[in-house]
Write a structure and sequence with these properties.
heterodimer, A: 140 residues, two-stranded antiparallel ribbon, two-stranded antiparallel sheet, elongated, disordered C terminus, B: 261 residues, alpha/beta, Rossmann fold, 8-stranded mixed sheet, 10 strands, globular
Chain lengths: 140, 261
């Protein structure tokens, strides 16, 4: 009866916990098993960021980390200098704000985290490109 | 070569590969197929023990590969079930004693002698695993509803996909009452996570301990609970559409109720 009440009041069953844990760990297993996909993603990320800032491409690092309820992408992109004026996008016209770059769009669906924006986190050293004053201080 | 060459694998040890191989082989043989079971677990052989033929081993697979005996000499015919034979592994050698190509050649030769070759794969994904899948044309992945077994099964499924081996899943040791109370992953949960086709569901049953103690495959008792379940699995392997029967009736947590067969 206690168990019944516990479940009734929303205590998750251990099988639900197991399923959620497995979902996460398999996602991260699959990512770490697809180095070519991660490499392609890193390449595309650097390309996009390089339009705005001068980055140290050789020392960029993209990893996936399992957090409490999601898998997060961590991109460590050392910035060498700000570009005086952002380079224009290659072909596509500039879209309204909120259109995030799509990294590695041609990669297989099971390899790339089709995570919603909230699950993705970009961490840059001296992060904010709108604060060029800090950019010069940040070689890796 | 007409035989189906099926490797029974799991990644994790102790989930029931060997008992599955023995029981499924026995049931297939009772259904009239010529079956040869191959123990690919060189150094840790156990299939002979589960089948109760451990005292009759003269030669093993390594001796066959090394040319010390003919393949037929190493095969042990089961005295209780017609059409069932086993090729034992070596116990005093290690897995590197045979290479993939040699293993595949042995399986190919066996395939000319029977209808089904069932290969009992060792745990792990290293040399022994690569040997065991080398000669196979399809795979059965055995797992239990536990996180570690499922994760390992997922890894093995990835490896089998790399080889383009078709595979189906047997979920072993399901405990319906625990599934119903939400304390065990259900069959649907497992097939969901692994996105693999289901071949069979085997409930956790003390009968297995009893039969392996005695060295008797399940198929010997026609009316046994597990005998019926393995018979259904054998029929699905033959291509029949056998529905998965219900293990239990739905309770209050009806969505957790699952099927078996």
């Amino acid at each position: 009866m206690f168990e019944f009440l516990a479940r009734f009041f929303g205590k998750p069953s251990s099988s639900a916990t197991a399923k959620e844990r497995l979902r996460l760990v398999l996602l991260s297993d699959h990512l770490s098993l697809a180095p070519d996909v991660v490499e392609a993603l890193k390449h595309d990320l650097i390309e996009v960021i390089s339009r705005y800032v001068d980055v140290d491409a050789a020392n960029c690092d993209v990893t996936f980390e399992q957090q409490e309820k999601r898998v997060a992408m961590l991109a460590n992109v050392p910035i060498l200098a700000m570009r005086a004026r952002p380079m224009p996008r290659r072909t596509t016209p500039r879209k309204p704000a909120g259109t995030a770059p799509q990294p590695a769009a041609d990669a297989p669906a099971n390899g790339v985290p089709r995570a919603p924006g909230r699950a993705k986190r970009k961490r840059r050293r001296q992060a904010d490109p709108s604060a060029p004053a800090t950019a010069g201080l940040s070689p890796a | 070569m007409s035989a189906r060459r099926i490797v029974i694998t799991s990644g994790k040890g102790g989930v029931g590969k060997t008992t599955t191989t023995a029981n499924l082989g026995a049931v297939l043989a009772k259904r009239g197929h010529r079956v040869i079971l191959v123990d690919a677990d060189i150094g840790l052989r156990n299939l002979d023990l589960v089948l109760g033929v451990e005292k009759r081993i003269v030669f093993d697979i390594v001796e066959v590969v090394e040319g010390r005996c003919q393949l037929r000499q190493a095969l042990i015919k089961d005295k209780r079930i017609e059409n069932l034979s086993i090729l034992p592994a070596a116990q005093t050698r290690d897995k590197t004693a045979i290479g993939e190509l040699q293993f595949a050649q042995v399986i190919e030769q066996l395939g000319e002698m029977c209808d089904y070759v069932l290969i009992d794969c060792p745990a792990g994904i290293e040399h022994g695993f690569r040997n065991a899948i080398a000669g196979a044309s399809e795979a059965i992945v055995v797992t239990t509803p536990e996180v570690s077994a499922i994760r390992d099964a997922d890894r093995v499924i990835g490896k089998l996909h790399e080889r383009s081996l078709p595979l189906r899943l047997i979920i072993n040791r399901i405990r319906p009452e625990m599934v119903r109370s939400g304390d065990m992953l259900s069959v649907d949960d497992v097939t969901d996570i692994l996105s693999a086709e289901l071949l069979g569901i085997v409930p956790d049953d003390e009968e297995v301990i009893d039969t392996t103690n005695k060295g008797e495959p399940i198929g010997l008792q026609v009316e046994s609970r597990l005998g019926i379940i393995y018979d259904k699995i054998a029929r699905r392997l033959e291509g029949d559409l056998v529905p998965f029967t219900q293990l239990s009736t739905p309770g209050f947590f009806g969505r957790l109720f699952r099927k078996a067969g």
